[in-house]
Amino acid sequence: MFAKTLQNFTQNPKNDILSGLTVALALVPEAVAFSFVAGVDPLVGLYGAFIMGLVTALFGGRPGMISGATGAMAVVMVHLIQKGNEVGLTLAEPVQNLGLQWLFITLLFVGAIQIMAGVFKLGKFVRLIPHPVMMGFVNGLAIVIFLSQLGLFKETRGTVPQWISGLDLWVMLALVGLTMGIMFGLPKITKKLPAALIAIIVVAAITIFGGLDVSTVGSFIRDGGGSGLKGSLPMFQTQIFGFIETLDGHWGLIFSTAFILAAVGLIESLMTLNLIDEMTETRGSGNRECVAQGGANILNGLFGGMGGCAMIGQSIINVSSGGRGRLSGATAAIALLCFVLFGAPLIEQIPIAALVGVMFMVVIGTFAWSSFRILHKIPVSDAIVLITVSAVTVWLDLAIAVFIGVVMSALVFAWKNATRIRARKRIKEDGTKVYEIWGPLFFGSTTAFNSKFDVSSDPDSVEIDFIESKISDHSGVEAVRNIANKYLDNGKQIKLTHLSPDCKALLLKWNPEFETIIKNSVEDPRYYVVTDTLDAEA
Asked: What is the four-CA torsion angle of 130, 136, 141, 142, rounded to 10 degrees?
């Protein structure tokens, strides 16, 4: 594994380094903005982005994917931090910013949950997410990224943010347009230089040497109440263990918040991993990513970061700029820390308009425009799922949207399959009535299955043939057992043919006398039933 990781670092160093620098510049306002959303100091968000980015770049399951402080997790943290701050002021010796200490403690549990998810290989379940849900996730996230950038078109006058207007608006729109134009046109001339980085440098040079009075990274931080980017190395937070006693009566809040943060982080990370897999036509390891995300969040709790997960916008910037290896993510993280330690005065002069232009191009590249073309060609149920997931992602939260989309898709799938079960009926020469079952037999189709039989009117000899059917779960096995018992209770002969070994074992466990009615054949299918097969074999 070490040799493979080292090879990944040396495959494409120039593109990875340049792409990493581009991502680092785009990470700054994002990390700062999400810090304000969570109600913590901007340096906490920047430390979180550095730790998340470095750990997942080195040990994660998807080279080229970028992790950092994210809005999806920031909005979950708000209530915990506010509650902690309120409790801190009521203590015998009041504690300022107790909510931040609670967050660090919570991140330890978040990391543990995520590591356990990786150890128990739960990352593979992301493959169960249907394509309409994936498209809805992408579209919804693109809209969220777009809307988050609109907030940068405001300036604080007094204490109230207001939309910029007049000449200031036109100048910002021109700079945004120039950034987007460079990113669109430069790749048509040469692909040796990362378009996003060149666009940021050009627009920054115009504003700095032209003396334009525009919103910059530095003014954005100060308007939000921060003191600037300048900071030191992340320090080990030994004090958090002294605040554990303040959690008496609040452990429920800690554990519930930790579970939600872990779920949101893993869902967004694994969905982003799938998307980058498609873009690069390679395959990452979801389970390894779970462990890396968990380890990074534990380190965030120990070293004063706000935690986070994979970032779809920055990941797309990285991949689009040529960053495909682990070196790109590591470069972005280290460059971000260098900005904090040494380059704060320079980075604070970068115009916000340049970074907004970069993110607008990310929005254009992220949104699945093909969904408009195929919307009227796909089944209505899939179209509804796609639109619902997009809307819920924007309205509520990514994790909730994905959960709703998967549940909707599962219900639609179950309903469609429940209506597909059929029973062809024929009479043999000896008078035996044969039911040839076709279609899946599971919890959704048992009612339809039972309706196919007329126990009282059937002849004395009946055969049920499952050669074209598959019994999928416990409910299906139970339906077979019940219908067989009905025939036996009515004094009629019943034969069950072409059952899988798994089905036979389960039926014989509950009804040993079925050994005389279950017929074995070389044509019997072999498949497993989703039920307690271990008990059946015991």
From this structure: 130
